[in-house]
Amino acid sequence: MKTLYTKALILIMFFVAVAGIAKAQQNEDLLNILIKKGLVTQAEADSIRSEQAVKEAAKRDKDKANQHSLTIGSKALQISGLAQIRYQGFEQTGVNNAFDLHRIRLIVQGSVSDQFSYYTQTELGGTGVKLIDAYVSYKPAEFFKFSAGQFKIPFSGESLTSDAVLDFIDRSQVVEALAGRSKDVIGNQQGRDIGVQISGNLFKTNDRYLFDYTLAILNGAGYDVTTDNNGFKDFAGRLGFHPVKGLDLGTDLYSGEGIPAVPAGGTKSQYRARYGFDGRYVIGPLSFAAEYDHGTDAAIKKDGWFVQAGYAIIPQVQVVARYDTFDPNKAIGTDRATIYAGGLNFTFNKWTKLAIDYLDRREETATQIKNNIFEAQLQLAF
Q1: Where is the domain boundary, 66, 90, 113?
Q2: Domain with 3 in it
Q3: pLDDT tens, 307-350?
Q4: Which of 150, 178, 264, 277 has minimal CB crowding within 10 Å?
């Protein structure tokens, strides 16, 4: 019965996506048939296409004007949010298929002057309300911005990517394990911490800056906490390079101390360090991304990397594929896990997206666990 439900949902999601592709292609196919039969001329067909393009542009302008946001006092208060409802179908025996509220976010932000601004983000789903982001910023110039509060750690290009625009429903294994997320030794901190940071953009050329930088000093104890759990302060830094339009490269490092969420030998603070490299290139309907990260927790060294590609069949439909591998202990030769992932993203409009992913999971063990996963997620952002 469990497998039947999962297959049924896969078929439903597939037909929804195919219907969207068919609708977009239908008009073009009909015009081509009419031209071949001599019922319309090429000029008349081009005129129809032009009129359709004008209508689509008008619709996009209408969508742009309808931002569904609240602004009070010259951008002093802006409210937005994100809702992601997910279904997971597990092949593994004993794990129940289930729907869940993956992310339910409320964002309140604003600018009180040209130089001072604030940003807050709260997670409303899951087991309880959690304050994710809460910081104030002072930006006197493009090359310098000072922020204080709780924010994303400047480490990992994928970790810094907004949840709303990820190509896959979930982040890669290495990012989940080394960027303060669900599988990190310090526990799931949503990639956040509390501290201060400076950032900025440098050397503008044409329509972009060549470099951006971020330097942060952090507690190292995670997010939504009232105090530091050790006497050390952590350091994180990131440098971005944008040599040509559409190409973003980054390198980052992290050094500090952390108390493991599930300590094997007491609650003593342990050395925690990371470094990594990442890149993303978008050219027309094609996109490519890759990242490598290395981590050290006490005496254990670990690393992982992923490469992924995406192609927009039409503007509303994107297919994606990813190779994702992670080794949680370099001293052990049989614990690496690799995931072959494929997905389809169907964008209904500016605010609504349906994502469908399938994860083929493989471990370096004598006996493979049947733990592949089918995921589908409906997203609404406003």
Answers
A1: 66
A2: 1-66
A3: 999 999 999 999 999 999 999 999 998 899 999 999 999 999 98
A4: 264
